[in-house]
Amino acid sequence: MDFKEHIIDKLQELTGLEREAIEKAVETPPDEKLGDLAFPCFPLAKVMRKAPPMIAQELKEQLSSDEAISQVDAVGGYLNFFYNKALFISDTVKAAREAGEDWGKSEMGSGKTVLVEYSSPNIAKPFHIGHLFSTAVGNSLARIYKFLGYDVQSLNHLGDWGTQFGKLISAYKRWGDAKVIEKDPINELLKIYVKFHEEAEKDPSLEDEAREYFKKLEDGDAETTELWKYFKDQSLVEFKRVYDMLGVSFDSYNGEAFYSDKMDEVVDILRDKGILTESEGAQVVDLSDMNMPPCIILKSDGATIYATRDIAAALYRHRTYNFDKNIYVVGLPQSLHFKQIFESMKRAGWEWSKDCVHVGFGLVKLPGKSMSTRHGDVVFLEDVLNESIEKTRSIIENNGANVDDIDAVSKKIGIGAILYTFLKNSREKDIVFSWDTMLDFDGESAPYCMYGYARGKSILRRAEGMDYSNADLTKAVSDDAYTLVKLINSFGDAVADAADKNEPFYVNRYVTSLVKAFNKFYNTNPIMRDDVDEETKKARLAIVDATCTVIKSALGLLGIEVVESM
């Protein structure tokens, strides 16, 4: 039984109000001592021509005999409902265990397509720690939307076009050593790229040479195209190794280059719509009426820029996927860029532009470290992941924990710790990187949540052979059991909230609260102790089993794998 829906049905029957009005009015009290659900009677005052407190009192009397409700209080103009704890625990745990890993899923997205663009590293440059913010948020959103029944397409819009490739080609032809580069492509390509900028500061003519090479690339010159493909292929091998560590995969790696032959049509469409104007020799969409700078479509030399490519990509995606939502997980500094291109698409008459959404995120702050690839001061993501794994391994060894496969456990916990950190707060907040906080087994962290799961699985292993499939869950009624089961019941709501606001931290916050409630339940409701009777053990084991399943599902939506023991 869905207790909230049951009460809404009863209120609709007794008041005659529209169901939608009741759904909007009911709320969860700020303190559970005030009840599980509250309904303000003020909207009924005009209809019933009575004071809200009187209406509340009358409704209380009519609802007090309902078996799903243990108590109804009329407080001022509010009705406060207390669920029947025994019935609620029994119904919820049985339903959750029957659903298994499908618990919390919904079909709200059935027949709808969501595109999630994220990660999008630059070819021939290392995958640095700053890229993880987009990757973590985008991967989590993709998982969340899939959980809700949407057809999700994960897109990696690679930075594989632009004058930087002219620079890299110039650098490669001057200082590149094929044998050296083949041993360590990304790092060696980075070295010569950095060297190009150092030398260009002394000899500005190198910049002209780079532009000439990129022009050759645009024109399809065989030699430059072959070098470009080499840079891209080698980069993808490196990127995919890191993606495999993170458990991330994509449906498309179409980058900027893919849209290079699709931009002329965009320019023609915008020109035909009469929204292109000339500004200092450039072709722009004038957005001054929106208090925004113009959206440049063609530079004064006739070259296209990011905006042109992004509009071409959006048009291609609309035609290819007919999406219901097109999400761009890109840093907050690009907010103006997306406002400009979305408004330009709207003015082109593309009604679907309203379904394009920029999901911004903050910065990663590392003391004394810069994120600028140009100057070579970059923190490689793979190095950070490996360091987290090693630090986790040391903690496990120092604590004397007995785990079957310390390598596998260290990897899951180490990587999970980093992902959790990037998803624990609203994505617009900056992240201050701290190993102490990240790998804290007692605080709000992935190790804490994973340990809660492992503890639950340990209890279930100890109970192996005991059949609790038809446990009498009324034997498990307690305040802490009820608090825990209410959280189990609200999993689907947390996931729906995360999708509605494109904020994975709703799931992160949820699973942390669930583990805290489980730890309290575990400490106040002994399970396998000799002095606990058999039926109570079974009832409590059923709750542990349901809890473990939900912890695993919730962490999975964050891209975090669980460990069975630690």
Could you give a quick summary of the protein structure above?
The chain has helices at 3-15, 19-25, 45-48, 52-63, 85-99, 131-147, 163-175, 178-183, 185-202, 205-218, 222-246, 263-272, 306-321, 335-347, 381-398, 406-423, 435-438, 446-462, 479-489, 491-501, 505-524, 534-557, and strands at 37-40, 69-75, 78-83, 113-117, 151-155, 276-279, 282-285, 295-298, 325-329, 356-359, 364-365, 431-432. It is an alpha/beta fold.
Structural class: alpha/beta
Terminal residue distance: 36 Å
Could you name the CATH homologous superfamily of the largest domain? Answer: HUPs
Strand order, main sheet: write it out: 5-4-9-10
**Radius of gyration over C-alpha positions, nearest whole angstrom:** 29 Å
Q: Per DSSP, what share of the residues sits in E-state strands of 2 or more residues?
A: 5-15%
What number of domains? 3
Detail the poorly predicted runs.
Answer: 370-376
Q: Class of the largest domain in CATH?
A: Alpha Beta
Task: Give the overall silhouette.
Answer: flat
Main pleated sheet: 4 strands, parallel
Q: What is the fold-level CATH name, i.e. the topology of the largest domain?
A: Rossmann fold
Helix content: 40-55%
CATH architecture grouping of the largest domain? 3-Layer(aba) Sandwich
Number of helices: 22
Mean pLDDT: 92
Number of strands: 12
Can you walk through the features of this model?
With 566 residues, the chain is an alpha/beta fold. It is built from 22 helices and twelve strands. The strands form four sheets. The chain has a four-stranded parallel sheet, with helices on both faces. Strands 1-3-2 form a three-stranded antiparallel sheet. Helix 5 (85-99) packs across helix 22 (534-557), helix 6 (131-147) packs across helix 20 and helix 10 (205-218) crosses helix 11. The chain is flat.
